[in-house]
Design brief:
Length: 203
Amino acid sequence: MSEDREQLKTQRHQQRQQKLKTAVDEKIANAQEERGVLMVITGNGKGKSTAGFGTITRAVGHNKSAAVVQFIKGGWECGERNVLQKLGVPFVVMNTGFTWETQNREQDKLACEQTWLAAEKVLADPNIDMVLLDELTYMVAYDYLDLERVLSALKNRPAHQHVIITGRGCHRALVELADTVSEVQPIKHAFEAGVKAQAGFDY
Ligand code: ATP
Ligand code: MG
């Protein structure tokens, strides 16, 4: 009796998997286009920058050329930068050390402008296959950067170039322009339980 039930389960599983495989195969057959993808990783959960750097590392692992532009520089060094720079990935980091705490709007705006000029350069460079614009969302949210300028640079980038934008509260226009958008939702964060940010795990 129980053997029969097992057999039935196995049969049903096979049927389900076959159905799934047919659907997936069809989707794979339909996805033939190859071009640069604009990806947004937003939301309040932890893992946005980590995912951005992970994708840059993936590209470098395939001998692609990549560049990183960071719009917020906290007081901490960045573990990924220590590795990726050695592998020839150029980093541009906003030089005021802009963080959530800075209160000098004019100074931040100026630093943002300079950093964005560097971003525009890489976004126009056909030799760069992938660009990470880490924490760009805040520059738009705080109105340090003109949205139209950002949209225009993204739209006019080389056709093969992938771009990843990270940060909370991404502007709707960027979400609309993007091809892939992921929202990281916080379920729990160790910080709430009193665990401090640690080198190698949080930065
Ligand atoms: P990570 O760099 O770890 O991928 P992130 O890019 O998703 O994080 P940010 O909003 O850029 O997150 O914040 C950076 C720092 O804030 C990290 O040290 C991260 O651990 C911490 N952090 C992220 N999300 C939360 C949260 N929900 N509560 C508390 N701290 C957080
Ligand atoms: Mg981040």
